[in-house]
Amino acid sequence: MIDAIDAGEHTLRRRRQLRDSVRAAGLYLCLGLLLFVLLFPVYWLLLSSLKHQSDFFTSPPVFLTTQLTTEHYQAVLADPFNRRYLLNTAIVAVVSTLLATLVGTAAAYILARIRLPIRLNRVLLVWILVNRLFPPISFAIPYYLLIRELGLIDTLAALILSNTAAAIPFVVWTMLGYFQDLPKEVERAAMIDGCTLWQRFVRVVMPMSTTSMVITAIFVFIYAWNELLYALTLTVLKARTVPVAIAGYVGDNALAWGQMSAFGVISFVPVMIAVLAVQRHIVRGLTFGAVKS
Amino acid sequence: MMLTARLRTWLRDDRIAALLFISPCILALCVAYLFPLIYSAYLSFCEWDIRTPGAPIELSGVDNYRDVLADGQFWSSVGRSLVFTLVALPAELLLGTLVALLLTNERLSGRLTGLSRVVLLVPLMVPPVVTGILWRLLFNVQYGPLNAALGFFGLNPQPWISQPDTAMAAVLVVEILTNTSIVAMILMGGMMALPQEPIRAAQMDGASPLRVLLEIKLPMLAHLYLIVGLIRLMDLLKTFDFIYAMTFGGPGVSTQTLNIYIVRLGSRFLEYPAAAAASWIFLLMLLPPSIYLLLKAVPRNQAYLND
Questions:
Q1: Residue A66 placed within a domain
Q2: Is A42 in CB contact (< 8 Å) with chain B?
Q3: Are A112 and A205 a contacting pair, CB within 8 Å?
Q4: Which structural domain, as residue segments, surrounds residue A183?
Q5: Which of A283, A287, A291, A292 to mutate to test the interface with B (most CBs of B within 10 A)?
Q6: Which chain B residues have a beta carbon less than 8 Å from that of A190?
Q7: ipTM of the predicted assembly exceeds 0.95
Q8: pLDDT at A292 > cutoff 70
Q9: Domain spanning B62-297: which CATH class is it, in words?
Q10: CB A240 within 8 A of CB A202
Q11: Residue B105: what are its φ and ψ, rounded to 5°?
């Protein structure tokens, strides 16, 4: 009798173990599928950038080969225009990232901490965020005319201004959520000690907020590095950026797939480095203050 | 001396300092958004032949609006934008939730999920232009790996983005594969920040994982879903870069969303006033629901330091 119960429990446990390992196997299968879907396109880009020209036009295509070449990279980097585009993109992305993060963080701090007259806090916040909604197309033309009036066509300044403004709403949104969750006690103490707003922000709040600011900045950097529409409309040649150059490969009938892929990989590397540098913090840094614990 | 002293006390006032803090932000947005927007409203009521140098900009009433509203292509582009958004948004939210659950699952080895979280960022790191051209390669009829895989399973190759019937679906696939990552990432942050006590308590009471998810986790994440949904909604309605590089609205007009339509009007046909009018119709359709959602999503502040 007791033996029978034992045996029953035994098979029950066996069954549960089996079910658990089937579940785990299923989960690992899903994970494998996810990783494949995420990585295969990038693998194909990398492979295409290293393939010999003759390997492009075979059917079925070459999935795996040891016959690799760096000629496409050399061709892209040997072109002085391309080097200029890379430098332009780097300057525009770095400067707009710094500006947008600082300006947006300062604004978010005020909106979170100082009650402004006539309910301006909420009005301003909604106005700032609504800007994020406008498709850039809806004012690309008037903006182009404005930039032309200012004599800034084909300059990096025009791109820096537009990218900074375009990124500010995002910075305000993420940093506002962060500041609202940040306890106010330290700042109250600083106020009692007679610190001005400026001192509180620079000496007390900013040092506490670097992680959040850096993560926000990374996303701004990705945006500014990749921005296409403004760069397309506001530049002619001198201030061209990499995305415009890459988009230029599309129209050509003689498809330079190797060079196009190589340029794609090159433009992907700085973003990858930036993201990998902060990847530990990224997931926890983007909660918009929306999860109350 | 008096003046600098007065200036200093003035600057020490929190409200004055606050205005100084926030003014660069307001200034930048005025120059880059408010002014062009007003200008484009003005332009939309004007006639302007850009091809004739020095041609004047003349008021022409609502002609542009009438023309755009009468243009069948405008309405089909609106329809495509809506289809694009209404398919991609729920798909990204659903897949994003599943991916977030998978990558926070405690049954899987922590090292592996940690690594996968980094890999999850990869589609977001690839510039959208590159995504566009990359998928041109992947979808290529003759030399693309996708058709090779179909061939391996004995299926016929498909002309994915070179025929109108499948082009929109292909564009949607790329959009969803790319941007599910951002949804998953934000949701994952939320799931990891959830308080553990109610979840543990429910598990002790023998609640199934599904019930814990539906009755405890998701309700606590409702506000985050609103924000993620809103962010994606805004970005989906703006989507331009990768479609530009992948199909430029083609073949024919089969992937011409409203954004591509406006760019074609403006850049190819140089119809600036008509493009401005189309933009404004677009904005007027978008603004009321967006402002409503924004008001719901933006947290109300509890207390300010200067109260």
A1: no
A2: yes
A3: no
A4: 73-285
A5: A283
A6: none
A7: no
A8: no
A9: mainly alpha
A10: no
A11: -70, 130
